[in-house]
Amino acid sequence: MKDDRPTVEQRGLFFEEFDLDVRYLHRPGRTATEADNVMFTTMTMNTQGLHLDAAWAATQPFGERLMNSMWTLSTMVGSSVAQLTQGTIVANLGFAEVTFPHPLHHGDTLYSETVVTSKRLSSSRPGQGIITLTHTGRNQYKDVVGTAVRTVMVWCKEARP
Q: Record's family (predicted)?
């Protein structure tokens, strides 16, 4: 049976579609669990007691284990992919100005958002553009738990493979 319905494929944005005047909210949020923390921390060979040792962490300034900040960063960026770069990214070029101004705790929900701070066509790669994104993660109380400036290279619409 032939299906003649129009097809819509979920994808990120092409260069031309990124808007400097928009704040992109990435939903749903992601509730951080103890299992996430232990798995991510051990998977990345991070032996920091602040993430793994409840008794020791209880003696530290926050009084409990904290979520691994690299989990926070990865989840902030990961939550943006479907909306911004799924299938349209050429390369992740780098990160700058990564901060964690407030800790993320087990049970907190991370909500991420992104603003585009600059965009330009690539001077060396025709059909591709360079986008600078500022990602911000907030907990359920709206406390900023992470920020990162990320530069990506994306396809222009007419040049996509």
A: Belongs to the enoyl-CoA hydratase/isomerase family.
